Amino acid sequence: MPILSYPSSPLIPTLTLLLSLPIFFYLAPSILPPRRLTITAPDELDDLSLFQKAISLSSSTSTDKSHRPSTKSRLGSTSTFRPKIAFLFLTNSDLHFLPLWQLFFNQTRPNLYNIYIHADPSIPITPPTGVFADKIIPSKRTQRSSPTLVSAARRLLATALLDDPSNAYFTLISQHCIPLHSFNYLYKFLFDVHKLSKNLEYLSYIEILSESPSLWDRYNARGENVMTPEISFDQFRVGSQFFTLSRNHALKVIEDRRLWRKFKLPCINVESCYPEEHYFPTLLSMADLEGCSQYTLTRVNWTDSVNGHPHTYHRPEVSPQLIHTLRESNSSYSYMFARKFSPDCLNPLMEIADSVIFKH
Ligand SMILES: *[C@@H]1O[C@H](CO)[C@@H](O)[C@H](O)[C@H]1NC(C)=O
Ligand SMILES: *[C@@H]1O[C@H](CO)[C@@H](O)[C@H](O)[C@H]1NC(C)=O
Ligand SMILES: *[C@@H]1O[C@H](CO)[C@@H](O)[C@H](O)[C@H]1NC(C)=O
């Protein structure tokens, strides 16, 4: 009798189990939902101490007034306060469009901007050069469908708030974003508008929407009733993950602990888990809706989106016409940035950089 006909032998099931273990571990990632990064207590404490430093610096050294543009910029006056734009690059790969951004920054004076890069440390990247050299801030791992992208954005905001009190606007950018206008066009837009209305706070440019077909599922992604009482469903908002915030609002974001307590919880429903598209619009609409334009400056194409990813532009699509089209918006101002662009777009974009993109 062959040995296999003795099912009572304890050796056989044990062997089968042992043999199938490697197969299980091989297949598990495609069968089980992938494990998501969570916010650990040490990471949270690191961030809190950074935020605390930025908050106390802001309350001790600066009043809101100092972040308004000077209305009397006289020739050669060195005492004139020049507000800066802080560019916050959030990436988990090389910055594909670094040469294009170099051109963007090369057209201006270094005292009008700062650059900060948050790069996922688990992914090796080529050390950036030129104006990007040494701009990587202490970073932690990031992952979609987890609260880590929100943490990374808050870390960038806090680092920039702390680093330079002249940072008046904070623009979040990814490695797939491109500029649609010159630096000077953006700078004039952000700061000149306010000369007309000196008593107004700077506006933040962040999309804030109260309606979306998937909003209810996204609200309940951490379980039913988990978000209450801090955030009721009618306070829950959605918007673009990429924004340009005023200093005042950047500070509000890192001061927040009440909403973050809920948004940092891991999702049960990973399919509806996009914390970075909800945390910022929800918080700012609750804190200061009047101070937000409710439009983002970053164009994104959601037509035929796949798996939560917007349309990704590829090389053959790049043309002067595309740049002109992407600038057009339904608000009273043009879009300043666009995503998502695949790395193969770099060369065609460089070819039209001076003649089209940075011409205005
Ligand atoms: C930017 O300017 C610097 C210094 O003027 C120069 O070395 C560099 O090549 C320029 N970069 C680009 C991309 O034009
Ligand atoms: C948006 O993406 C779709 C394909 O998904 C494309 O057909 C359309 O031209 C794009 N729109 C713009 C303005 O680029
Ligand atoms: C402007 O609004 C219309 C109507 O809602 C919409 O179809 C169109 O895509 C919008 N255009 C842009 C550039 O957002």
Describe the structure.
The protein is of the alpha/beta class. The protein has one domain (41-54, 82-357). 34% of the residues lie in helices and 9% in strands. The chain is built from twelve helices and seven strands. It has a four-stranded mixed β-sheet with strand order 2-1-3-5. The longest helix has 21 residues, at 11-31. It is globular, with a radius of gyration of 24 Å. It starts with 10 loop residues before the first helix and ends with a helix. Mean pLDDT is 87; it is low at 1-8 and 63-79. Bound molecules: 2-acetamido-2-deoxy-beta-D-glucopyranose (NAG) (3 copies).
List keywords for this structure.
single chain; 360 residues; alpha/beta; four-stranded mixed β-sheet; globular; binds 2-acetamido-2-deoxy-beta-D-glucopyranose
SSE inventory with pairings:
Elements: H1 11-31, H2 41-61, E1 84-91, H3 98-106, E2 113-119, H4 148-163, E3 167-174, E4 178-179, H5 183-192, H6 215-219, E5 244-246, H7 247-255, H8 260-263, H9 279-288, E6 298-300, H10 320-327, E7 337-339, H11 346-351, H12 353-357
Parallel strand pairs: 1-2, 1-3, 6-7
Antiparallel strand pairs: 3-5, 4-7
Helix pairs in contact: 2-4, 4-7
Bound molecules: 2-acetamido-2-deoxy-beta-D-glucopyranose (3 copies).
* Ligands (ions, cofactors included): 2-acetamido-2-deoxy-beta-D-glucopyranose
Number of helices: 12
Query: What is the CA-CA span between the terminal residues?
Result: 87 Å
Briefly note the structural class of the backbone.
alpha/beta
Which strands sit side by side, in order, in the main sheet? Answer: 2-1-3-5
Report low-confidence residues grouped into runs of 5 or more: 1-8, 63-79
**Percent of residues in helices:** 25-40%
Cα radius of gyration in angstroms: 24 Å
Provide mean pLDDT, rounded. 87
Q: How many strand units?
A: 7
Q: What amount of the residues lies in strands?
A: 5-15%
Domain module count: 1
Shape: globular
Q: How do the SSEs run, as a string of H and E?
A: HHEHEHEEHHEHHHEHEHH
**Largest sheet descriptor:** 4 strands, mixed
